Amino acid sequence: MFQLGGIVVTLVNGLLGLIFWRRLRATFPRHGAWIDLACPAGLLLLGHPALLMAVASWPGLRAAQRHLPDPLSMIAMGAQVSLLLSGLLLGVAATARALVRALRRRRPPMVVRPPTDGPPATHAGAGPAPGIVEAEPEAVDASRRRLVVGATWALPAAAVAASMGGVLASRQRPVVVRLALPVRRGLTSLHGVTIAQLSDIHVGSFMDAERLDELRDAMNALRADIHVITGDLLDHHVSQLDLSARLVRGLRPARGQLFFCMGNHEYIAARSADVGTIVKGLEEAGAQVLVDEAREVRLGGDRLWMGAIDYPSRARPGEPARRPTADGLARALAQMRDDGAPRVLLSHHPGTFRAARELPIDLMLSGHTHGGQISLGRIGDVALTPMLAAGLYHNGLYEHRGRRLHVNAGAGGWLPVRINCPPEITLVELVPA
To answer: Helix 48-67 and helix 32-46: axis angle, to 10°?
Structure first.
């Protein structure tokens, strides 16, 4: 699948490179020789991530990430995004121009009524018929033409600016998204309790020790009572466990408890070892890894329930296949007593809310989507992003009959580019209903 994607993107890159080559030749006709050399070299340099995937699938791209400095890799990935965004914008502009031309062709020619006492009609071939106004050919304005050709670079320039700005935005300090969770007024020990959520850190994928320290400090600065990580802490290999455990050890929840649910990338990383090794490493660092289970959290004279379900459709430790999502939900809920205490459920994949939203759960915390990383806003419950297929539960807060889901936009990413979708820490505060 990754190799096929690399082939498709490489072909698109080649087509866009040809379009830009022609535009450059038209804009700078005196520098054709330099343009003929610079275009293939630039395309090879900027489009190498897709080319490596086309040749060697996912391992080829990972090999480049390991051996190239992070700044160079981030610039190359940002340039790849800018190239695709440029193609998208040029395609939209070309479609609009084609529609305008089609509408113009459908207009009838301008006809002026002939005068009643005008000269007699001329014979065929002697000139235009009376009443038909012929437009004279318009003189070509060379300076205007150069201006129009130069203006065509506005869209690619905007795409480059947005993408490179997105590279810088992916490294900014996480924004804190605050969320209130109403609880019964009688549970006074819970009023003001806070839960801080990190998700989708992807250690090893443009996420080094320095960046992890920034995330650790941002989490600790909130002084939240409880910390949770909703999966994809590791990215793709068990060697990333050391840095992941280092982050976990550095987190300082005020009430001392940190909960973790499994994401799909924990299982991808487990292919280089086993799931038990990853779970053990995280638990030794201080995380409580919950797999289709729940724990009671005592806070003063009151309690809340913290549960988590496994990532769907992946293997479980010691089992050939994991429980279906419905079974995992039932197992976790069975460990939460129906005593009026709030129930919080961690689930890496937000799609599980479809099954959980009819169950007695007060709040589900999820991740997985990264908020799309390129966000065009949200209309109702539908988040608009070119990076994800149409559907619900991409980013932010959702409600269904009093049941709440919050989808964290993540702290890491598939690509080191974020546009209108900054890295996020979610801070949930329990407030009296």
So the answer is: 60
